[in-house]
Automatic annotation (TrEMBL):
Coiled coil location: 5-60, 90-142
Gene Ontology cellular-component terms listed: Golgi membrane
Organism encoding this protein: Tyrannus savana
Entry annotated with the keyword Glycoprotein: no
Highest taxon, organism lineage: Eukaryota
UniProt keywords, alphabetically: Coiled coil
PANTHER family hit by this protein: GOLGI INTEGRAL MEMBRANE PROTEIN 4, GOLGI INTEGRAL MEMBRANE PROTEIN 4-LIKE
Name of protein: GOLI4 protein
UniProt cross-references to InterPro entries, sorted A to Z: GOLIM4
Keyword Coiled coil: yes
Length: 192
């Protein structure tokens, strides 16, 4: 009985020691669990805060996305309007360019035609000028010949005039002599 009692006592002590050990482990585990709970609680609060911030960020992002979409649509509409205006202006400018190009071609054709007419007119004028110059030179030569001949005739006429004048003076002198002779003869009584 003593042996059994001692054995049981030993078992009780062992059991108490084991219980004490388990109790310490439980307390340690409880402390660790408390730390884990607190950590979990902090994490949950942090997660809740993150979720709130994420929700706010998501709402802000949705608002920003909506505003950006509206701005993009407005910009797209403005771009389409500008494109339409530019396209219309481009068509007008293209038509004006085509008209100017056509006018340029017409003016080039007209210029070439006028250039040809001008060249023909210049050639014709050159020919007429050369002909007139030749006629003028010929006429000048003829006039110079005529002037030379007229000068020669004038010299001859002057010479003849001087001769006639001299003869006339001689004739007047002879007439005066004849008159004086006649008067002298008339005064003579026997001559009558």
């Amino acid at each position: 009985g003593v042996f059994l009692y001692n054995h049981l006592q030993q078992k009780v002590r062992n059991a108490e020691a084991l219980a004490q050990k388990y109790k310490q482990q439980q307390e340690a585990l409880s402390a660790q669990l408390q730390v884990v709970y607190e950590h979990r609680s902090r994490l949950e609060r942090s997660l809740q805060k993150e979720r709130g911030e994420h929700k706010k960020t998501k709402e802000d992002f949705l608002v920003y996305k909506l505003e950006a979409q509206e701005a993009l649509n407005k910009e797209k509409q403005d771009s389409m309007n500008r494109y339409g205006a530019l396209s219309s202006q481009h068509k007008i400018l293209k038509n004006q360019h085509d008209d100017v190009k056509k006018q340029l071609l017409d003016l080039q054709l007209q210029h070439n035609s006028l250039k040809l007419e001008h060249r023909k007119a210049v050639e014709s004028h050159s020919q007429k000028y050369a002909q007139l110059q030749q006629e003028k030179d010929s006429e000048v030569t003829n006039l110079q010949d005529t002037v030379f001949k007229l000068r020669e005739e004038s010299k001859l006429l002057r010479k003849a005039h001087q001769e006639v004048h001299s003869q006339l003076l001689n004739a007047q002198a002879q007439m005066e002599e004849f008159r004086q002779l006649k008067e002298a003869l008339q005064k003579m009584p026997g001559f009558r």
